[in-house]
Every structure is written in C-alpha cells, then in structure tokens.
Write the structure tokens for this entry.
Amino acid sequence: TADHGNADHMLERRADGSLQARTSHSLNPVPFVIFDPREPLGGPQLRAVDRPGLSNVAATCLELLGFSVPDGYRPSLLAAPGR
C-alpha cells in the first residue's frame, strides 16, 4: 500500500490569516492495484465490497499469500476467496 499523505492540501489558514503546514491525511480516495504478470489481464479480479478501505487490505494480502483470513477481519477484495 502507499501512504497518500496530503499533497492535495498542504497548507491551512490559522485564525489570524497566516498559513501553517497541514500534517494530517486527506480523505481523497487512493487506488488499490494488484499486478501479477502470471495472471490473465495482469492480476486477480476484485469484487465489489461495501465501503472498501484500508481495513480490507489485510484480508486481501493474507489471501494472496495463501493464508486463512481470521474471523473479525473485513472482507478481502479478491473475487475468488481462498486462492
């Protein structure tokens, strides 16, 4: 995964009008890309997940590595779980 930081919103105004660095993350969406040259079309097919986010990445990585996803994890993004 990549840390997208806050490149879209680097500064914010203080109450007195001066600028200060904004150090928090933005809420802009970040693409999730899996590429495997051995797979047709360059990677596994992803499925639609309700409100996907970083919390789905752990289950997805575990499945890609061949591990079982523990109970309580958010769903994997892979279309064919248990690869």
About this structure: The longest strand covers residues 11-13.
